[in-house]
Amino acid sequence: MDRRTRTILVLLTFSLLTLSCSSVSDDEVISQTSNVLILRNANVIDVIAREVSEGVDIVISGESIHEIGSDLNCARYPSAQVIDVEGQYVIPGLIEGHAHITQLPEQSLTIALRKGVVALRDMAGDGYYLRVLKAAVNRGEVIGPDIYFSALLGGQELIMKDTRVKLSTPPEYDLGEAPWARLVDSNSDISQIVLDAKDCGATGIKLYAYLSADVISRVTAEARRSDLKVWAHAVVYPATVEEVVAARVDAISHSSFLLLPEGWSYKDGSRALDISNYDSLGQRRLFQHMVENDVAFDPTLVVNDQMLSSMTDRSGREAMKEAMFRSVQTAYEMGVTIMAGTDMPLPRVENDTLALYRELVLLVTRAKMTPLDALRSATIINAQMLGIDDVIGSVNENKRADMIVLRANPLDDIHNIAKIRFVIKGGRIVN
Ligand SMILES: [Zn+2]
After folding, report:
1. Residues 85 and 98 in one domain
2. What's the gap in Å between 100 CA and the centre of ligand 1?
């Protein structure tokens, strides 16, 4: 190689390096110009390793995280768009563990995504619409979180009387026959009901109300065979929470149900909430069984907090809330897997706050979870509950590039979860 060629080569390499490593560092809205993105100098919160990697570079190629490392050789990615995120924190995209979206405008999905929600678990609604919407999101026609939904099963008293069930049943189905709003009792063909739920595109079965312990364990066993999850209300009356846990469902919902006295029925309503249930021996035994049976807990603190706030007796309601939060704290300290879900609507307009932020704040400030564990609940734990933790739920190589860049560390203060610079879903920046 003569001197001139060498000089040209050196110059060329140098210019490639400076070109490819020059980065966007302003805080304005970023428009994506390349299929390869590099987030430079990121502080990555790894929710699986439970550690923060400081000042690393994340290479996103297409939909996936290609590489995470320090002192990355930019020349290997000459066409990459580089964004400097120095001093900022990268966390996985959030997963809303308890949503109901069928009554919401489509724009709610887009707003939720911009606020960091990359997937959600819908806990009962019109399954026909949910299936169509899920496919539209997957095709990129609707911009929003990925949708995973449940097929609801209930007894006669629920299915024939609940107006929400009527609303979710299209005219071509008799009440109780739609696969996602289904009547089940001890005489039902349970294996067919489970197959229908699977066929309608549901990820899990939701056991809601007026079901016996026997029906619950038969449905759960059948769902396992069809690779469907089983999600239950904590009390499915007449089945008790102990019986629901004994059936080894995947998760139970609603912390307020933990305050119900033994022998409670729906007729007693929430007036029967009993503060003495908090931290009782019975409750500790229940949490122990949840750990042993691998049953997760979806406490839905935001909706339950709001429900208790409507009680007129001020001191009574504060004591009740305290008991509820401390129940969740006890469950957490005893090692029960905690999900983060709100049972609240997604934001309708940009200025609405995301209920999931508040859920995380309550999990930390009232149920005394560490910010990292609360963050795990809203990411990798919820991903596990949906069976998608090999694809999303953490910022790791080869996973889908779903992440949030935050301007401040959520592990220092969980309120920082709302300080979003930008969101990435499937390798694309969401604006
Ligand atoms: Zn719900």
Report:
1. no
2. 7
